[in-house]
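Kindly draft a sequence, keeping tokens residue-aligned:
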Amino acid sequence: MIRRFISYYKNYLGLFMVDMGCSMGISLLGMFYPIITRMMLNDFIPNQKFNEIVKFGIILLLVYFAKMVMKYCVDFYGHMCGTYMQADMRREMFRKIESLPFSYFDNNETGKIMTRIGNDLFEIAELAHHGPETILTAVSALVFAFIYLSNINLNLTLIIFGCSPFLLVIALYVRKRHLDASRASREALAEINIEVNSSVSGVRVTKAFSNSDKEMEKFEKGNVSFVDAKRKQYRSMAILHSTTNFVTDVFNVVCLISGGIYLYNGQISFGDYSVFILSINLFVSPVMQLLNFMEQFENGITGFEKFVEVMDEPVEEDSEDAKDYNNLNGDIKFDDVSFSYTDKEDAEVLNHISFNIKKGTTVALVGPSGGGKTTICSLLPKFYHVESGQISIDGIDIEKISMKSLRENIGIVQQDVFLFSGTIYENILYGRLDASEEEVIAAAKKANIYDYVMSLPDGFDTEIGERGVKLSGGQKQRLSIARVFLKNPSVLILDEATSALDNATEVLIQHSLNTLKEGRTTLVVAHRLSTIKNADKILVVSNGEIVEEGTHSDLLNKNGIYTGLYRSQFAQEEKLDDRLMMS
């Protein structure tokens, strides 16, 4: 783990060496004040060497100027070294997140991922900068202090350094409790972040249902836990600081009394005694630095462990014999396919599914919710991998088709449209990033959104807000359709693309979808059966199995599950029409 952490320094060895060199220099220059003070008290002042007093005063001023320059280098270049490492880790993590399979996002909340890429990486950057610097500065300061104080009086120095184990034992015991409390506090904060992320993302739903009080109640529960965790953290911190301060004060007492005895017995001069009292911080300060560093080390290493957890997650990978196929025709075959989202046998979603879709035809999937329709659509572009059986396109096992080329040949329009923050133009262009402006405009026209776009003051440069909040549901859907038009795939998946729209908007969208389906192999998941009457084949999926298949008229004649679904939906639509007429 430590070796892996250290490897991130290799690209910034220059900055790191400047930071370490200046840190060492600061420790060394810190010795000049007590050295010159001793010379003043023992020689220059008693012997009235005025010129020496002035000369060494100027030398000390120059030393402090050099120390200021070194401190600037440590604070700037040291922090930049940590920041560059943080940026590298963030880049690696983002690239890793983009390569993770869908299953990872099924099991990890967005707020948790944001904490990893934000707070945890910041703690790592702080450790990357302050860690080596603190260790080098503190250790070198202790060595310099021991050498210097021994030169004044070795026995007195040994007495002071001999007391250090007591400080370390007491401080380590108290700090262990503080670290545990700090860890609990960070976990409580992470839970709050997850809750806030969820509440902010769903604020429109909250307002629609007037459930702000409920969200406040959920937030307050986490907030109270956070306050309790912070109370324990600050109590342990108060115990830590007060205890360590008391121990360092005891050091001053030990130094004062033992030094006083040596002075009384004539074993040390008054000047050396005074300097020794003044110089005790040369020992105490680096010890406290090392103790305080422990918390930073704990935070940084904990953050790095969480970073490594993400980096060690298995990524989406093509099989060794996978190849690129740029122009697939779209003959699709599911052959005895089974799949489940967990390892439990009773959690099987698809059970030995088999069907064919000929090039350029439309096949619709209907049936009860949870039957496996959307799962079938997710397996085709390899968002998940089949457990048994085989899916092929143009007779080629999709496991032997690279994910990139497979997904480039598949266009998806879903019920829940996701749009990126940015302009209308940028969101359409996302369908094919190398497309020309003329191609983007043509795609907008085919999706029947061009006239609306041109009615806006900024046209295609209109900002749509986060997730397209400034657009209606129909406008967002047409924008997603334009994106697929631009992509121009050979296979099209429509996953309940119009189920969330009103009837009038659905008619407009359906017209765009009919144009989009022309010449493409299309797999449709439909809730409203009226929209798939003209499908070349309809598959009824229930409990992970295909229980019926045929055309609309064939299935009605069978008087089976499809007939029941159709009649139930038709009856509901008739009741709705009657209510509308009565109102």
Notes: The longest strand covers residues 348-357. The two ends are 70 Å apart (CA to CA).
